[in-house]
Design goal:
The protein has helices at 42-46, 53-66, 83-89, 110-114, 120-134, 140-143, 151-157, and strands at 35-36, 93-94, 103-104, 161-162. By secondary structure, the chain is mainly alpha-helical.
């Protein structure tokens, strides 16, 4: 049996004024323990809200392939890390001593260079071909002449370079 609903009335013909006013739900936020992005292991990453074992493992592997993070924004580049999760964990992240692992550009092999996330195989081959034709690199500006290496990648790579 359906009844006609009149404006201003609720269920069973009662006025909406008889229902208690709902208070907004307050979401409790737990204070997070700050972690250093360059020294934290997977268990420390998992302590952050939104980071599970797989994502924690990816972040640590990405950091190790890079040779360390020099900026907190680099964590965002981890595959599978949603921007919303990154924004939630950002206040919990600290950047201690970066201690970047240098990339000895004149001494590394093709495979070692190609595994760096900011280089890749095509750029690594271009870098080594340029080095074979023109001699060893002496300064970062020399790398600007390598056609296969995009300027954006070079800027991100610059803190890791050692000649």
């Amino acid at each position: 049996m359906l009844r006609k609903v009149r404006s201003g009335t609720g269920v069973e013909g009662r006025s909406f004024q008889h229902y208690p006013e709902r208070k907004p739900y307050k979401k409790e936020t737990k204070p997070c323990t700050p972690i250093d992005v360059n020294t934290s292991d997977t268990s420390a990453w998992q302590s952050l809200r939104g980071i599970g074992p797989v994502l924690a493992n990816r972040i640590v592997k990405f950091r190790d392939k890079l040779g360390g993070f020099y900026a907190l924004e680099q964590v965002r580049e981890t595959y599978g890390l949603a921007d919303s999760v990154f924004q939630k964990i950002l206040p919990c992240l600290t950047l201690g001593n970066p201690g970047l692992k240098p990339l000895l550009i004149n001494q590394v092999t093709l495979n070692e260079m190609a595994t760096h996330p900011y280089i890749g195989f095509k750029a690594a081959r271009g870098i080594l071909n340029w080095k074979d034709q023109h001699g060893p690199f002496t300064k970062p500006e020399d790398l600007e002449e390598v056609v296969a290496l995009e300027k954006q990648k070079l800027e991100r790579l610059r803190p890791y370079l050692q000649f």
